[in-house]
Design goal:
Blueprint (H helix, E strand, L loop, with lengths): L10 E12 L2 E12 L3 E5 L6 H8 L7 E6 L2 E2 L10 E4 L11 H12 L3 H14 L13 H13 L5 E5 L7 H16 L3 E5 L3 H7 L2 E6 L2 E7 H5 L4 E7 L14 E8 L2 E6 L4 H8 L4 E8 L3 H8 L2 H13 L16 H8 L4 E7 L2 E10 L57
Parallel strand pairs: 3-8, 3-9, 6-7, 7-8
Antiparallel strand pairs: 1-2, 1-4, 4-5, 9-10, 11-13, 11-14, 12-13, 15-16
Helix pairs in contact: 2-3, 3-4
Amino acid sequence: MPGDRTVNSETIIGIEHLNKWYGNVQAVKDVSLAVGKGETFGFLGPNGAGKTTTIRCILGLLRPDSGQVRVLGKNLRRASGELRRVGYVPGELALMGNVTGEWHVHYIEGLRGTDDMVGFDRAKGLADQLDLNLSKKVRTLSKGNKQKLALVLALMDEPDLLILDEPTSGLDPLNQETVFDMISERVGAGATVFLSSHVLSEVERVCKRVAILREGVLVDDEAMEALLGKRLRELRVSFDATVRPNLLYGIEGVINIRQVDDVTLTAEVRQWGVDALLKRLALCTVTDCALEKTRLEDAFLHFYRDDDEITAAATVEQDAKVQPIEPSVLSLAPTAEVARDLSAGEPAIGAEVVDGELEPEAGEVVAVVKPEMVTDPTAVPTSETGTDPEPEPETEHTAIPMPPISPSDDAPEEPSEKGGDAR
């Protein structure tokens, strides 16, 4: 279900018809969204989609060409005081290199007009959790420790709104866990989190709702649970006898069927196809089966691909779908006795065509084929790519299938976009 984009009194971030141009390039195109109080919101998209531009418009670092932005219930132009309640970790850090982390803490406390000593004590506690020495000059810190300092500055005044752009960049797994705990603590206290990240596993962990931006356009806004339902499962299944890919044809949601060897098939399965797949496999003797969720990134690829790629993917999936016919054994002409077995829903074991009759052969299994499996009684099943399979040699019949201080010698780094990053 699409997210609620209606701005109201409970809205912490409200964007209505936002547009932003850089010369002849429109970076953000008529974006509208609303993030409610206490919500954990993921803001995703490929590089160059307009995510950072949108965030900078939310913070007032860039002025929109048109549209409205509200932060913490106030119009952005009147929200300068409210911005003190915002903690921000930029994607590109711009810290003073020739001063210490402690200096940054006191400086930010001065800008916010908060109690310097109370803020410093909280900052020291956060730094200790992250194993960060605030007495060192920033220029001596590693990338990971600079990221820790940015997180301390964002969290030390217990903000009501956290805007995080790649917050765990450069951190080791242990410190990432600590950051997640810190974020969870703020969420538990009622804070709102607006998270932009390319590490989709952390988005899954933190966020309950996700919006996806592509080429400046908001292409999706829905609950994380609904989006994860679109994630594919990777199937690898082996049988106790020779199989062919057409065993899995006609199952809604099963695509990209491949044959690995004589007894093993792989495929990709959508969530709604799992039940029908298992029922089909239950007709056979399965020796091994793995059905694993693909990488979380695959759930988002549909939104990242261009239109030609989406069309090609849809074509492959459509080619794997077929229409029903009467029950039979694929590529085999059943005798009256076998036909009776099939009508009773029982598999025919060890069948092979010899002079027009079915004869058993040790070690082979013939799958029962239900009505939905193939296109036409006289048609040869097509592969998942839409091409006809190679015909079987007439002499051989195979049983059928079963992812404010700026020291002169060290000025802050220039931000990559007009407007810069701010704390």
